[in-house]
Amino acid sequence: MTILVTGANGQLGNEMQIVAKKSSDKYIFTDVCEGYEKLDITDLEAIRKVVKENDVKCIVNCAAWTNVDAAETAGDIVETLNATAPENLAKAMKEVNGLLVHVSTDYVFGGDPYNTPCKEDQKGTPTGVYGMTKLHGEQKIQAVGGNYVILRTAWLYSEFGKNFVKTMLNLTATKPQLKVVFDQVGTPTYALDLANAIATIIEDCEKEIFNSQLSIINYSKSGIYHFSNEGVCSWYDFTKMIAEYVGNSDCDIQPCHSDEFPSPVKRPAYSVLDKSKVKGTFGVTIPYWVDSLEKCLKNLTEGQC
Length: 305
Ligand SMILES: NC(=O)c1ccc[n+]([C@@H]2O[C@H](COP(=O)([O-])OP(=O)(O)OC[C@H]3O[C@@H](n4cnc5c(N)ncnc54)[C@H](OP(=O)(O)O)[C@@H]3O)[C@@H](O)[C@H]2O)c1
Fold this sequence. Notes:
The protein has helices at 11-20, 44-54, 77-95, 129-144, 164-174, 191-212, 235-246, 276-282, 289-301, and strands at residues 2-6, 26-31, 37-38, 56-61, 99-105, 147-153, 156-157, 177-181, 185-186, 189-190, 223-226, 233-234, 252-256, 270-271. It is α/β, with parallel strands linked by helices and 305 residues long. Strand 5, helix 4 (129-144) and strand 6 form a beta-alpha-beta unit. Helix 2 packs parallel to helix 3 (77-95), helix 3 (77-95) runs parallel beside helix 4 (129-144) and helix 5 (164-174) crosses helix 7. The chain is globular. The two termini are 28 Å apart. 45% of the residues are buried. The structure holds NADP nicotinamide-adenine-dinucleotide phosphate. NADP nicotinamide-adenine-dinucleotide phosphate (NAP) binds at residues 6-7, 9-12, 31-33, 40-42, 62-64, 66, 81, 103, 105, 134, 153-156, 161.
């Protein structure tokens, strides 16, 4: 099967490149920047062309507008990239009976107060433009009606690009004191673990195709799933663990409330995803967040990436 990855130069896209090396499938890595096959996912005809030319049967969408605060003032591009573009990908896959694996976010929740892990069928209550446009993207994919797996994830980090782990590695190495919020709780997700889960889902879909000896007509497991690492922590705990692992002990890290760092978008106070469905359906094993963080930090500090 030929699998096309969008946004290949991002955090998840880079981890997909690592995971793809273990696969016998053909992968095509695309992005809007140099170094990849160029594909702008806001251009439906360009998607159709690359799908046709390469007989693509699965698209993994790692591209998105991901700057949460900047989304508030960026204008129409955020809806175009986070909602219309996934709809384009869903249409292109439906036309060839293919599968779209799309990545969404815990920020589709947050408006209602809750203190138990969010399930897939819980009502979306985004608090900002990013979460709202990602929710629209999910709805548009579902409305197209083809085969899709939407994976909502949270607090994504990796060895690649800009992210919280890399920022805190730097700040705890250079600042004598640091305040980090402890009143926002969630679960970090190592993008490599998410990429491995995506590979498992694609394999599962392929088995179904081979069993039916057809292209993917009705993938029985189409739907929305939640994926993060296991466990729960605050941004403060996350930072303490990063600093401790690399031995940045000279920085005095103190907990603080969110109102000390005003931001354009209200973040959910409790944003933990319930992962029972993805585990039960695909049999994926999900690592504890501290174990995955240590793997990523080892790669970063030993310069493997
Ligand atoms: N980061 C998080 O904490 C987080 C949390 C929850 C969910 N997610 C979701 O997880 C997914 C992956 O996130 P990530 O952090 O890996 O994203 P990322 O690092 O920001 O990567 C996104 C990639 O998409 C590219 N892109 C931008 N516009 C494009 C277009 N029109 N066509 C094709 N590619 C385009 C970007 O290129 P440029 O850099 O040149 O713009 C970038 O290479 C996203 O769906 C995101 O919403 C992320």
